[in-house]
From TrEMBL:
Organism: Aeromicrobium camelliae
Record's protein name: TIGR02611 family protein
Entry keyword set: Membrane, Transmembrane, Transmembrane helix
Pfam families linked to this entry: PGPGW
Keyword Transmembrane among record annotations: yes
Domain of life: Bacteria
Keyword Transmembrane helix: yes
Transmembrane intervals: 20-49, 80-99, 126-144
């Protein structure tokens, strides 16, 4: 057996499972930290669905809801523009974190804040820029697929009618 096929065989089972669990754990952390937490969770579940029936049961309704949300989000131009502006706001907040803005000192629920922003590191700004880039990419993909592509002519959103490209 060649080295490449052994590596591919290892990734098919062990590597994809390890990557799936890693994405699930990172996704959970990114739900409360800056970053695309839901995307990490869904990506991890998608990889785990190759190996576990419980993950497939979670992924199928998520897939249906994601397609429904993508179609709804790009149904009108105002929604598309608002989505793009939302990603621009996330990008702008990343710029604020990057330039190290000072904030006034204040207390909230017994916790002291200021003069530095919480999680005041370049990694926070980079995570926000990455989130904005992912949002723009997914918005562009949804516009292409559900407004102009072959999926725009499909009346149903069922997974069996979508094909294997989703």
């Amino acid at each position: 057996m060649a080295r490449g096929s052994r590596l591919l065989s290892w990734f098919d089972r062990t590597g994809s499972e390890l990557l799936g669990w890693t994405l699930v754990v990172l996704g959970l952390f990114m739900l409360v930290l800056p970053g695309p937490g839901l995307l990490g969770l869904v990506g991890g579940i998608a990889l785990l669905a190759r190996h576990y029936h419980w993950a497939r049961r979670i992924l199928d309704p998520l897939h249906e809801k994601a397609i429904e949300a993508a179609r709804y989000g790009v149904a009108t131009w105002p929604r598309i523009v608002l989505s793009a502006l939302g990603a621009a706001c996330i990008f702008a907040v990343g710029v604020v974190w990057w330039v190290d803005v000072r904030i006034p000192r204040f207390e909230l629920l017994g916790l002291d804040f200021g003069p530095d922003l919480p999680a005041d590191t370049p990694a926070t700004a980079i995570a926000m820029w990455g989130s904005a880039a992912i949002a723009w990419f997914l918005l562009g993909y949804s516009v292409w697929k559900y407004r102009y592509g072959p999926a725009s002519r499909m009346p149903s959103t069922s997974r069996s009618n979508e094909g294997a490209t989703d």
